[in-house]
Amino acid sequence: MPIALAPTFKPLPLVRAVTVPANTVHNVFSSYSPSSSAFNKVWLRNRRKPPVFGTLIKCGAGGAVLEIDETQFSDVVLKSDRPVLVEFVATWCGPCRLIAPAVQLLAKEYQDKLTVVKVDHDSNPRLIEEYKVYGLPTLIIFQNGKEVSGSRREGAITKDKLKDYLNKHMESVSIV
After folding, report:
1. 96 given a catalytic annotation
2. What was the pLDDT predicted at 91?
3. DSSP characters for 115-127?
């Protein structure tokens, strides 16, 4: 009976490192051609700004939404003399990133009537447990240190529906 031998492998060819000047814009769709020692000609010809994928929306970017944690929650939300919209979010949550621009715009629009804050789900487990946040994003309106009855909302929402939601609950706390 013949003995089968494992095939022999050739060593991989050496890889040449390519460095690019620091001020060069990198395109995620560009490729490197070892024969021409340059990025592909299509990219050089077009030189458009590359698309940005996986951008995290930083809370408080426009100044209207304040990002808070467990230590600030009592002072900012529960002791506030005006209504507070609390948005429970996570950086990995797609629907949270989807509604962030709408929340930011409405926070600016309602800034004289309402305080808008974001609470990160992963960094604040005590608040998540205390307020029984099961889905993200979760919106809750607080007035006088208490959750406004019926104001809890989970999931993505359009800007128009978010505005209707705020108007409905702002009327119930007689601020509008």
Report:
1. yes
2. 93
3. EEEEEETTT-HHH
Classify the C-alpha dihedral 139-144-146-148 as positive or negative: negative
Residues 76 and 82 sit within 8 Å (Cβ to Cβ): no
The 8-class DSSP code of residue 148 comes to P
For 108-127, the pLDDT digits (tens) are 999 999 999 999 999 999 99
- Buried b vs exposed e over 118-148: b needs ≥16 C-beta within 10 Å? bbbbeebeebbeebebeebbbbbbbbeeeeb
Place of tokens 């808070």: 68
Is the separation of the CB atoms in 67 and 120 below 8 Å?
A: yes
How many CB atoms within 10 Å of residue 162? 19
One DSSP character per residue, 38-94 reads: EE-HHHHHH-PPPP--SPPPPTTTTSSEEEE-HHHHIIIIIT-SS-EEEEEE-TT-H
Nearest by Cα to 170 from 152, 143, 145, 144: 143
Q: Of 85, 93, 114, 170, which is the active-site residue?
A: 93
Cβ(101)–Cβ(51) under 8 Å?
no
Catalytic choice (86, 89, 96, 106): 96
Active site residue 59: no
State both tokens at 2: 């013949």
